[in-house]
Specification:
Elements: H1 13-21, H2 32-46, H3 48-81, E1 92-98, E2 103-110, E3 115-124, E4 131-136, H4 143-146, E5 152-153, E6 159-165, E7 170-177, E8 185-194
Helix pairs in contact: 2-3
């Protein structure tokens, strides 16, 4: 007849025995603070009622501690969920007044593979046109200089929708040029930044 399988020893058995009827040994060579703590612990263990209250207190502390750790782990996510994300400077809508021969628009950092989408509309005067440029703007060049070597140049238009994906990370400009002599034009330019990365 085969022997019954033995149960694995309980690593906390010493603590269970101590809580039932044990006492903590106190050595005279131990520092006084250690002896005081052990004497207090022995006082708790002497009475079944105090042992039971102590056991319940430890359980409550463990539960509260675990709840505290869980709350600390998820609280930042809960508090940030309702906050609106910081708006990228290339996500905007603005009205520009552009004198003859001048350039206006927005310039900002775009991460490679991210996309800028937008449109412009000429508000006035009638019969005016604007030329739309997308330029690489690595430094402090004047916008008039930047449009001499654009990544994209449109025909003279009164309105246009555009969609640009940055080939590399860098500063890019989305500019409107007024080619009409002696005429100041007003236009509204809208740009929206779309990240290629999934939301965090």
């Amino acid at each position: 007849m085969a022997d019954a399988p033995k149960e694995a020893p309980d690593p906390a058995a010493w603590l269970s025995d101590l809580m039932k009827e044990g006492q903590v040994p106190i050595r005279e060579t131990e520092p006084r603070p250690t002896r005081v703590v052990k004497q207090g612990f022995n006082w708790v263990l002497e009475s079944p009622r105090r042992r039971k209250a102590f056991a319940y207190s430890i359980r409550v502390l463990l539960i509260v501690g675990m709840l505290g750790l869980a709350t600390a782990a998820i609280y930042p996510e809960l508090t940030n969920a309702g906050n609106p994300p910081v708006q990228d400077p290339l996500t905007q809508q603005a009205t520009w007044t552009i004198p003859s021969g001048n350039v206006s628009g927005v310039v900002g950092l775009v991460t490679g593979d991210d996309m800028i989408e937008g449109n412009f509309t000429l508000l006035g005067p009638p019969n005016g046109t604007l030329v739309f440029y997308i330029v690489n703007a690595p430094g402090n060049e004047s916008w008039t200089h930047l449009v001499e070597h654009p990544l994209y140049e449109s025909a003279p238009l009164t309105h246009m929708w555009f969609n640009f994906t940055a080939p590399l990370t860098g500063n890019y400009g989305f500019l409107l040029y007024n080619p009409n002599p002696g005429v100041t034009e007003e236009a509204i330019l809208t740009t929206v930044y779309f990240s290629s990365l999934p939301p965090a």
